[in-house]
Fold these 2 entries.
Entry 1:
Amino acid sequence: MAEVLVLVDHADGEVKKVTLELLTAARRVGEPSAVVVGEATGDITAKLGEYGAEKVYTAPAELNDYVVAPKAELLATLAADKSAVAVLVSATAENKEIAGRTAVKLGSGVLTDVVDLTADLVAEHSIFGGGVVAHARVTTGVPVVAVRPNAIPAEAAQGAAVQEAVTVELSEGAKAARITDRVKESKGSRPELAEAAIVVSGGRGVGSDDFSVVEGLADSLGAAVGASRAAVDSGWYPNAFQVGQTGKTVAPNLYIALGISGAIQHRAGMQTSKTIVAVNKDPEAPLLEIADFAVVGDLHKVTPQLTEEINKRK
Amino acid sequence: MNIVVLVKQVPDTATERKLNPADSTVDRASSDGVINELCEYAIEEALLLKEKHGGEVTILSAGPDQATDSIRKALSMGADKAVHLNDEALHGSDSLQTAYALAKALGTIEFDLVILGSESTDARTGVVAAALAEYLGLPQLTLANKVDIDGSSVRVQRQTDDGYDVVEATLPAVVSVVEKINEPRYPSFKLIMAAKKKPVTKLGAADAAIDTALVGVANATTAVVDFAEAPPRAAGTVVKDEGNGGVQIADFLAAKKFV
Ligand SMILES: Cc1cc2nc3c(=O)[nH]c(=O)nc-3n(C[C@H](O)[C@H](O)[C@H](O)COP(=O)(O)OP(=O)(O)OC[C@H]3O[C@@H](n4cnc5c(N)ncnc54)[C@H](O)[C@@H]3O)c2cc1C
Ligand SMILES: Nc1ncnc2c1ncn2[C@@H]1O[C@H](COP(=O)(O)O)[C@@H](O)[C@H]1O
């Protein structure tokens, strides 16, 4: 069976959930080959095997020292050498860029923000903020597909996970944009926003940089915390937590919006959440139109009561 | 410092957006065209850099006749001149084809820096800037929330999943911006009037040496198989808080097995 390359997302020695989802999708198409940039620890390799990776290609961590181009060179080279039938990446901002450059190198096409994939590589998209469902395919060359986190449920299936180190001779061009420093904004111990099953977000309605009302509810549910752009721009919550068109796209099982009006740019990043709950004092707020359950009221009264109630029922 | 800003006209997100049943391209007739929001941030950043380092700001837009509205708007913010790539052969090009066509059009312009929006509101692919850098063989400094130029080098803060990376390269380079970077200005009356006289160069595919066998919906690298309106979300329950709103949400969550 033909190989399907899956670019692995990992941090601190752990494989991200979305990679397991990609491996699951890859098995529909062919034999998954995981591509790890940086050290593939025993734990990483084992996990990739549990979700069906037959091969695990490892490339030097040096590729991470430059923006995007080296990983595209790696994927394009591997795709050609191994006659891969498709390349899958997660639909993060950076990986979509990698996907675009890989497709240019392969002379093929790229599909981004895919929510489902068939065995013959027809991809489902949810476009215009969830208003239209479209199916598309790549018409030429090896398809490069960026799949949204939380869209395809991960299912375990044992693969051989045979490791193979790959060396890439980076072109000078690939080293043109050097990363000279990395700055991380604190995250704490909550689940990661893009991958979380439950997300609790706060907006301008929270009213100050005291986000404890949002965080308290999130912790009672084991949820990630998100924020609207208004809250981020006000300096109440770090940028990395923005949900929306220019922030992260999330599609959790449950999305709770506290004091968020639901501007189109916010909805673009959360509209495909399976269940939506909103608390807003304005009955006309657009978010209420797409909420499965909404309370019109003051979030500073409703939320603490909700948090207490959840903690009581646990 | 000569800067080219890539500007795209998109259907207004505030109106209902549709796809053409005939060829599954974005139906630009059914909703008002506006300048892609993130492109305004790109223009603003170019103007700020020009104010600091001098030079000229050129707008480059690929699109049908209507795109002239967005080009005029860009000029009225303060850009100096524009190039409008407009050719029937380009209709329905996908994002990689667009990047190719833009790369070719950039071959007709002298520049030190190209600035794009990181994403458009209609396509939302977020691949054009990266693909453009690939086609041009120039350094890619994308998703920038801060840009600094020092002589012949450029340094940006690149927004990442959990913070930002500092990225450095030498000019010429491709930069894409996120909306954190600045606050776009409103055109003044004086600039709006002045914009009417600013030069807009029309460019056809042949003028930019674009191979028409590589662009347009017929040669697209991706094809829409089918599309349909998503079933509307079932109407939800809205209750007014009478002092037990929190308990009511908890009941709802319990019924849905979240607690
Ligand atoms: C290019 C561009 C990109 C953008 N990208 C994003 C993006 O990625 N993500 C994003 O979120 N936005 C984005 N926006 C901004 C978006 O248009 C809105 O401005 C933003 O989402 C508003 O945030 P908000 O809902 O928190 O604030 P507001 O719109 O001010 O809404 C606050 C809400 O809180 C309610 N409220 C106030 N007090 C209380 C209270 N005590 N109890 C209960 N409810 C209360 C109010 O009724 C109101 O509905 C973008 C805009 C542009 C132009
Ligand atoms: N037709 C076009 N003409 C000029 N610039 C474009 C065009 N299409 C895309 N761009 C640029 O590419 C950016 C990202 O678009 P996209 O990748 O399509 O989401 C936009 O913000 C524009 O700066």
Entry 2:
Amino acid sequence: MEKKIFCVVPAFNEEKNISRVIKIVKPLVDQVVVVDDCSRDKTYALAAAEGVVVLRHIINRGQGAALQTGNDYAIKMGADIIVHFDADGQFSADEIGDLVNPIVNGEFDVVFGSRFLGKKSDMPWMKEKFIMPIARLVNAILLDVRITDPQAGFRALSRKAAMSFRIMNDGHAHCSEIMHKTIKNRLKFREVPITVTYHHFGQTVFSGKGRRSGGLTIIKDLLLAKFID
Amino acid sequence: MLQQIIALAIVGYFLTRLFKQKNKKQISGGEFVFWFLFWLLLGVMVIGLKLIDRLVFNLGFSASGINVLLYLGVAALFYFFFKIRLRQEKIERDITEVVRELAIAKKEK
């Protein structure tokens, strides 16, 4: 039986990239679900013009929140596999198959893209040599997560995986949270190499695009979540 | 002595306020009990400051009782701040759930 693949694209002020991203992703999946996280630009209108499903947050809630909204919608609409794909156009859509196939074959429940498994990404030096090792350390200490790419947003989840947990971190701490919950829920997972083309630096220690991003905020959110969850 | 009288006057003022708030039903029963015990304890501590001085000295600390009270006050403030932060975070999550429901419900119409 054919698996129904949904691609969830969280978007915040991405009018420059959203149309292009939808155009390249749309032919590769059954349904694209853009979650516009209360953008102030034309993201919503441009995405809607591409003929895909566009959900709109009336208040900006962050990337993690947008992904869970997309997950909820996809599950409701009968998705078998959910792919998370950033709206900034830094991921390669032709690698969606690499993430989806292990789930289609029934071998794994979750597949994480990794920028550190052979394929060469033009990652900024500061990010590769300084921020990522710290992020790996934080994941290992706080969450007992030991995965090569601590902050990869490109991933695929089986329906079973997406239903087994909810993303509670509204901001960018969702990456670590998803890895942690994958391990905690004993879901079968693997990492596959991906390529990322950097158009901008992305998250730094102190700031990043969108609500509750930036390295220190992520650490703070992970710590807070420990007292709430 | 004068400082103790001023401190007790402040405690008395807040206790009066507390009872007024309770009568006007501006606070819940649980909140009233908490703050009543809080101000009562503070009043007792102010009255028994000499005793606290002796206790602190016997425990081997060089600071006076009033200093210890201040340190405990700062620690309590940190604790309350943390509790408020956790509550705020839970409210944030509830807001996200509402925003999410709205986004999906609007699409399903």
